[in-house]
Amino acid sequence: MMADYIDSFPGREIRIDYQKYLYFGGTSYLGLQADPEFQRLFIENIKKYGTSYGASRKSNVQIAIFDEVEAYLSKMVGCETAITLSSGYLAGQFVVQHFSSPKHRLFYAPNTHSALFASKTKRYTTFATLNIALREHLASNHRQTAVVFLDSIDFSGSNYPGFQALKALPLEQLILVVDDSHGIGVVGTHGEGIFKTVNALKPKELLVCCSLGKGLSLQAGAVFGLRERIERLRNSDFFGGASPASPAAMATLLQSNALYAKKRKQLRAHIDQFLGQLKNPDFFLQMEGHPAFSYAGSTLTDQLRKKNIITTSFSYPNEAASMMNRIILSAAHTADDISILTDAINSSIS
Prior knowledge:
By secondary structure, this protein is of the alpha/beta class. 36% of the residues lie in helices and 18% in strands. The longest helix has 21 residues, at 257-277.
């Protein structure tokens, strides 16, 4: 499928070849990247903190906003402490490199994001085969701690919200590393994501890493976990050598709590409306409370495009991968947008 090129941020509408389309794709779940109030806050913070900050977090001159945001995020998520970086991908690589040592054996659950891979390590195709491999390792190798990587929201329904497949694993003997990039800011009563839910399953240890660029609409990443583990990460050469996230972005995150809550409420109303108006909701794979609706094949994609609606549809994460087809609802959409979408779907599928 050929890509469409545009010249501005893809909000609820996009223009392609002078033609206007409703856009139900991307990962801007709260729709804040183009929100005037959110942009105003960001611009004011750029005036205070500059457009970027290229110094090490270990510099002898430090900006206080990073520690303030990490304390805020820790409280929101429900963990002991947190550390922020310049992107979610970097956060994932930060954690996997930390555990890439002779003391650890890395295991990858089905559909784990490439951000959590340090090399072409085997990704298990089912949780059943992962479970067998883990138990064999634990029975025969007591020198290497097993570390299991997975995505909280993998768009297959295997993990969030119930994490049923995860419960079958010998969690008390495992370190879990969970990528919550599609959950943080979106799922949970206050957008706290999945940390408390997974931690309640009592793994040996839990780390959650994520992008803040999807649900929280800011270019940054974060890692959540136990204080001792996070301090080890903080004292690493990796962290000391990397430039941090934009302090203007961090300050905007800290100031946007009320705006985030407002947008989550709007998003949940859109999800309820969408499900209520669909004639055949079972056509889609959807996770409770999440605004992504996956479907098979390109037929619906093509039919919706003819009706001036564009959805997410491309091979991910590379050209050899299978096609990813998804409808994404955003808080930026209007109730009329949702009605137009459901009318188009209802007339396209039986």
